Amino acid sequence: MHALSAHLKRSKGDFTLDIKVDFIQGITGVFGPSGAGKTTLMHLLVGLENPDQGYVKIEETILVDTFKNICEPTRNRKIGYVFQEGRLFPHMSVRKNLLFATKYIPKGQQVIEFEELVNLLELNNLLEKRPKQLSGGEKQRVAIGRALLSSPKLLLMDEPFSSLDVKLRRQIIPYLIKINRKFNIPMLVVSHDLPDLLSLTRELFLLKKGRVVGHGTYLDLLEQENMFELMRGGGLMNVIPFKVEKHDKKDGLTILSNKSASETISMEREMELDCCQIGDYVNLSLRPEDIALSLEKILNISIRNQLPGTIVKIIQQDSRNYCLVDVGFKLLVSITHASLLKMELAENKKVWCLFKSMALQTNF
Amino acid sequence: MEDWYVFSEAEMSAIGLSFKVALWCAILVLPIATLIGWWLARKNFRGKAFIEGFINLPLVLPPVATGFILLLLLGTKGLIGHWLNELFGIRIAFTYYAALIASMIVSFPLAVRAIRLSIEMVDPGFEEAAKTLGASTFQSFIRVSLPLALPGIISGFILSFARSLGEFGATIIFAGNISGETQTIPLALFNQIQMPGMESSAFRLLLVAVLFSFLAMAFSEYLVKKLHRSN
Hints:
The structure holds two protein chains of two kinds. Chain A contains ten helices and 20 strands. By secondary structure, chain A is an alpha+beta fold. Chain A has two domains: 4-236, P-loop containing nucleotide triphosphate hydrolases (Rossmann fold, 3-Layer(aba) Sandwich), CATH 3.40.50; 239-359, CATH 2.40.50.100. In chain A, strands 7-8-9-3-10-11 form a six-stranded mixed beta sheet, with helices on both faces. In chain A, strands 2-1-4-5-6 form a five-stranded antiparallel beta sheet, with helices on one face. A five-stranded antiparallel beta sheet of chain A has the order 16-20-17-18-19. In chain A, strand 17 (305-317) and strand 18 (320-326) form a beta hairpin. The longest helix of chain A has 13 residues, at 136-148. Chain A is globular, with a radius of gyration of 22 Å. Chain B is an all-alpha fold. Helices cover 77% and strands 0% of the residues of chain B. In chain B, helix 1 (9-42) packs parallel to helix 5 (96-120) and helix 2 (48-60) crosses helix 5 (96-120). The termini of chain B are far apart. The chains are: A alpha+beta, B mainly alpha. The A-B interface holds A 46-48, 73-77, 79-81, 83, 85, 87, 89-91, 100-101, 103-105, 146-147, 150 and B 123, 125-126, 128-136, 143-144, 147-148, 231.
């Protein structure tokens, strides 16, 4: 059963949007440059704009079907929408903002409890404040909480990071992961920042000029010629899932491992990951520039992570060169043209990928 | 000779009537002007300029002309008036209700203007957010835009109150100048000025008119400032 399935067409002046999306569960990212139609897509899903033609279905409920003349008004759609700018009601306290939607939900049908949500999003000390007294990150959390308390079947987030500065933007990520895990609400997150999106999910829809030009996991998309170009604009990043093995409370360390690589990668991290349960997977990111290639294993070196693999593809874009190396999963490695020639790198060649554990970023 | 500051019975009745008409006028105009103001601020439709022009007509039309139009429509022999009279025996012209209607018509565009401007200042995005949270259009207006536009709505209320206090032209044509029934402060003042020897009475009415108008405007300013601070 699809959490969401929709096909929407809409023309506005020169711009035509024709988008088909469906996904099952979890967090799905929608990535595209500005002007690709991301916000229009959100507005069509939530009912702030109407399509010229198409349908929207959530689970088995038809919300829009232009052929059957069905078009549920926004208030009946049960889609939570976190606006780019938050749009908290300035005349209400945080508590009243959060409780705004609960008036419209019949008793007993409230899916998420107020207390539970306030604890999860750490809003306890903010409840009596006015929105203008909040920081950007706090506003964003309140906006997410307010949308969740409307008991939505789907949560849409429009650029949840863009109104936050670099330091704050990644702080919102663990909250989103917690929400998705705890309440099992499918989420569609729109962003023009690829690393931000990738720290949430690897399932992506790529949008360009009002069309879906790619759909799938990040690495599958990277292999496609035209996708690479599009995604490079948003910042390229390797995202590697790690399993949380152990919290060592005494030393304040968390031990993580990845066994899908050609050699097990294990590493220790300080307690920044203590919000994760043992057995959970966290996505760590690794910049293509932080990986070195070697033709053999190097013994006398401080870099412990050395993964043997095969070059799947060499991508040459403008003056930059990238190797896509299969080390059990695919790694994107940035390399200079000189090295490419000197090492005689080619597809199917065996190489070792070297990187320091410290280059793996948790993003939060 | 009477002391100059003692109000006569006719003057007291003019003051009381003025106050009553102005208050009812402001109360009745408020909900209609709020709805129309919201409609004009939020909706775009064909013929909007025409509707706006029609609503604003009493603002530029000589009040005497407005009164005359009202008389033509609602007078005992008027277009609607004769029908009301024949079917229900209702007579409006030259009664208290005529004074009230004349006041409402002339103060309506002022109230709509103030309310509309303040609603236009409220980001329509807040209403959109309310709708995604399950509110209907009406509920999102009542719970979000209305409180945010409250200073403008209050000033709309007070403007129509104040305009009604000063209303003369439309009232004298449509409601007449009947002491105790339709004679408000401006009409009484007009009477006294015309009659020799009534200067002190005119002066008393003048003072009351100035005082009322000043208090209404000062109160409006105070409320708007207070609301701005609390938001």
